[in-house]
Amino acid sequence: MGISFTVLSSGSTGNATVVRNEETTLMIDAGLSAKRIDELLQERDVTGEEIDGILVTHEHSDHIKGLGAVARKYDLPIYANEKTWEAMEKSIGKIAEENRVVLGTGEVRDFGSLRVESFGISHDAAEPVGYCFYDGDEKLSVATDLGYMSDKVKQAISDSNVLVLESNHDIEMLRMGRYPWNIKRRILGDMGHLSNVDAGEALSELLTGDLKRTYLAHLSRDHNMMDLAKMTVRDSMEERGCFYKDSEFKLCDTYYDRPTPWDKVSEP
């Protein structure tokens, strides 16, 4: 079976992704209400009882809004590093001690035949992380809420077959938008979010024969559009001499209001 995944929801209104193989089903973040997460899971023919645990990237509400409720409802272990646990404990309510699991940044853990590795990222949270998933020769990486693409992040997600990558905002739309300047400065800064141009620049370095698809994720509803993000990412890549055909490499959509179709990492 290998690795398959669906991005249930992506954006500032809530984030959740399901990754599974033949033995294990894991959720990354639970940033929507428990009711809404159940609805999105049902759309992809998954039940909460099938989930084996929840991996947390960081403590912001669009990543943990339903975390405590989902974990209690289905008696699920939650995996996060110690600083994230400290930052989110008051927000998620009481969690059974056996379900409070520390997964350190950079730690590798096997869930049956599904191997998970976390890596540190730059964002204005206690100790934010992304995740890589391995099954045999397959590799899926999830990297959102990035202030910038550091060399360490590039190294962590290199050689991925499929990548879920932040493409949060169009720089000019953000600059001209309604947000106060202090919020704009935060988003544009090294602890904020990755722009479309930055995503394209990163992909121009990451695109190898191994990388087949990239899902552009965590798009701002106020300062971005999927078609614009794709166009800008392509232009940014081509400006850096990275040309490709859609038959060789694809940019894929994510949505804030519906899940992506199941994607098998092994598929061409």
TrEMBL record:
<comment type="function">
    <text>Counteracts the endogenous Pycsar antiviral defense system. Phosphodiesterase that enables metal-dependent hydrolysis of host cyclic nucleotide Pycsar defense signals such as cCMP and cUMP.</text>
</comment>
<dbReference type="InterPro" id="IPR036866">
    <property type="entry name" value="RibonucZ/Hydroxyglut_hydro"/>
</dbReference>
<dbReference type="InterPro" id="IPR001279">
    <property type="entry name" value="Metallo-B-lactamas"/>
</dbReference>
<protein>
    <submittedName>
        <fullName>MBL fold hydrolase</fullName>
    </submittedName>
</protein>
<dbReference type="Pfam" id="PF12706">
    <property type="entry name" value="Lactamase_B_2"/>
</dbReference>
<dbReference type="GO" id="GO:0016787">
    <property type="term" value="F:hydrolase activity"/>
</dbReference>
<dbReference type="InterPro" id="IPR052533">
    <property type="entry name" value="WalJ/YycJ-like"/>
</dbReference>
<keyword id="KW-0378">Hydrolase</keyword>
<feature type="domain" description="Metallo-beta-lactamase">
    <location>
        <begin position="13"/>
        <end position="218"/>
    </location>
</feature>
